[in-house]
Amino acid sequence: MTKLMTPAISVAALEAARPKAVIGTVRAETIDDPEVLLKKVSQQLEQLNGEAKQTAEDALKQAKAAGDVSAETKAAADKLLAEQTATMKAVEDLKALVEGLDSKTLEISQQVASGTGRGGGDKILSLGQAVAAEEDKIKAYIEGGCSGTTSMRISNAITTAPGSGGGLIYHEEERDPIRIPRRRLLVRALLTQATVGSDQVHYRRQVLRQSGAGMVAETTPSGASSFGWEKAVERVKKIATHTNTSEEALADADQLQSEVDGELRYLINLEEEKQIVAGDGVGENLTGLLTEAPAFVAAAGLPNANRIDRLRLGLLQVTLEDYMPAEILLNPTDWTAIELLKVGGADNRYVYGDPGAQAMPRLWGKDVVETNTMSIGEWLAGDLAMAATYYDRQETEVILSTEHDQNFVEDMVTMKARKRVALIIKRALAMVRGDFVFV
Questions:
Q1: In a designed cystine with 394, which of 36, 40, 416, 420 is the match (CB 3.0 to 4.6 A)?
Q2: Which of 2-6, 157-161, 174-178, 208-212 has the highest mean pLDDT?
């Protein structure tokens, strides 16, 4: 610990060690103004230097005249040299004192201004008061010949505690909150996108194609082909959620409205993806892809022993329906299981490829879409853009109201998010759904 009062002790030590010819007694006011003391001692040193020079010239004259220097002249010279040495040391010590006091002036001033110290309520002492309070310690130091070092503990230094320097400490604050993770919502983008201007989507779909095409001879009638269509309709359905907050919270927390807005929109979109993938079509639920996709049926005579085999057979099933599969939907756990398959035996090579390779997930030339919306152990493959069309009637909007329930009298605000959509599975045979249960 830095000893703030050590320069003041030096002044007390100089009082005991000073040469008698230098100056008078060191007074309290001198301690309060060490620069004045330094000036006086410096003047005394100049006087001693002059006297020493004169004594040296007298000794030189005596040596030339008598061939030797008198004993009185030698004694005077020795005394002057001793006084000169002591005074020079006093000058150096006083210079150090002045420099030390200058470096501590700001710190002491701050302590005096605050009125408190490390002890929490201790009275702030001036430099002279602090020295006087340690009088016994200083006397013992002087009586010991000023050898070694001594120190005085300062109990009212500026610290980081409240009421001291802590009041000036400020902290960095990140205004952007750490949000709960949001799922990557990838499935909607795989479908055909459209808009609708009313509460229903009417469409036609072909239900019959009976071919009579064949080779015929000249003048022979050709075979008749039959076709059939039917009308279909799908209702627009709504996804919505809401939350309540106080007017004060919205007014005082400048980020609250935008944060809640973003959270509500995310929850709407998350529910939308769940409905697209697995909506059961009951009530206000959408009819999702897994609900309409045909179940997987393994082709006879082909391998069906692991995940890679089964997905290839699923792609085959779509291809045999005259559609061209484009993507495979998997839970991340199932895709990881595929990537970790090894050749077997003593060969530790991975079947799928090099783990160090930077490549987009693909299997059998088709894009693999990893999503937690798919349950572990299930998969969906096909051409989803061909299979389904997703209609937007009203894109996500977030509205605020103070009129709901007791909002007006309770100063509450209801924030509601909603969107209106329709999903139509137009070509179910362009998809196939399955699992990874091997019997």
A1: 420
A2: 208-212
How much is the mean pLDDT over the chain? 82
Instruction: Kindly report the three-state secondary structure assignment for every residue of 184-197.
Output: CCCCHHHCEEEECC
The answer to whether 103 touches 109, Cβ cutoff 8 Å, is: no
Distance between CA atoms of residues 298 and 314, nearest Å: 7
Q: What is the DSSP string of 62-91?
A: HHHHHSS--HHHHHHHHHHHHHHHHHHHHH
Amino acid 386: pLDDT? 97
Cα–Cα–Cα angle for 424, 427, 433, nearest 5°?
Answer: 95
- How far apart are the C-alpha atoms of 361 and 367, rounded to whole Å? 6
Q: Is the pLDDT of residue 72 over 80?
A: no
CA distance 49 to 58: 14
- pTM, rounded to two decimals: 0.64
Give the whole-angstrom CA distance, residue 393 versus residue 195.
Answer: 6
**Identity of the residue numbered 192:** T
The number of residues making up the chain comes to 439
Structure tokens at 93: 């010590």
Question: Cα separations (Å) of 383 from 28, 56, 188, 422?
Answer: 99, 115, 13, 19
**Phi, psi angles (nearest 5°) of residue 99:** -65, -40
Tokens at 239, concatenated:
């996804």
Q: What is the pLDDT of residues 116-166, one digit of tens each?
A: 444 444 555 555 666 566 667 666 766 776 666 666 565 667 888 888 888
Torsion angle, alpha carbons of 260, 266, 268, 269, to 10? 160
